[in-house]
Model the fold of this input.
Amino acid sequence: MNGQDLLLLDSMDTQGCISSPPPLPAESLGGEYKLGFVDRSFSAAGAAFISAIIVNPLDVAKTRLQAQAAGVSYSHPLSNVTNRMGYFGPSMMFADLRCSPSCARAGIEGTVSICPPECFRYKGTLDVFYKIVHQEGFARLWRGTNAALALAVPTVGIYLPCYDLFCNWLEEFTSKSAPSITPYVPSVAGSLARSLACATCYPIELARTRMQAFKETQIGKKPPGVIQTLLGVVSQVKSTNSPPNSLQGYRALWTGMGAQLARDVPFSAICWSTLEPTRRELRRLVGGNDANAWGVLGANFTAGFVAGTIAAGATCPLDVAKTRRQIEMDPVKALRMTTRQTLMEIWRDGGFKGLFTGFGARVGRAGPSVGIVVSFYEVVKYVLHHQYSPS
Done:
């Protein structure tokens, strides 16, 4: 007797007649546990919270490298003789004069007096970490974390539950109507869910990118938060428009959303089409439906890590274009530019290397991030499912 015979026997009633078919296993494409949307959203929000805190430094490094390639200068204001006199005063601290720690031409005890702007250029991911810690402080590696949390919790809270629901609906529909396209269900469901989440929470994504890309250079001034950053975007656009009540300023809060979708939709399609078959095989290795929480965690983290790494590498040029559009300070140009024009501009400025600026930081961030989010989400669903159905 094989497994199909056992399922057939289980579906027979006492008179030997076949009753209703056995239920789908819990490891189907959408992770079909007996949970509602609220439970799934709770699981996803917790996963997003943990992931955003852990991988934020890599996100800052990636954004700084891409912004620098777009022309953002990170040189110290005191490296320009014209700007020095405005900094000297009773609030001046010696620490504010720190130069790059790797600079051999710095002034007395590493001050910036004769340090050229080149010393503040980032040369790679580790160099970004090193210079941010020494020039701005260790806490600045988590710059934009509040925006990341404000973004990640609702975005992933929409994204993963909607993916589950779309996946289950599409799987059920295609299995009856068009079985040949069932393998493409994860790609379609992931793209739809990501588009919905992106359109809903995009202004916070815009604020996060700007907060990570620009550093505060005024002494004793706290960097702007999410609300101040978004108000600054709106005021920049309104100042260029003649009608005082124009809605153009609020439209600017969605500047670059086309580039974001151009990155996220293929990212989701590649990620889920890789993740689903990978974790299905790994789940079988650790016991299938009988796997414990550690088996679920390991299978989902490994599959998520592999899928996130592949998807991030493949969509890196679109991520560079997204960052460049979001940090554009000219409001007229920002509203007029398209993703295609931005990619052409990046190609003219830096060629093939320019299209993959920040590749190491992006791949190093996406793999663990997807692994953490998916594994935490599935483990919490697993625990809640067994709590509701202890038998």
In short: Confidence is low (pLDDT under 50) at residues 1-28, 81-97. The longest helix spans residues 37-69. The CA atoms of residues 27 and 185 lie 15 Å apart. The radius of gyration is 25 Å.
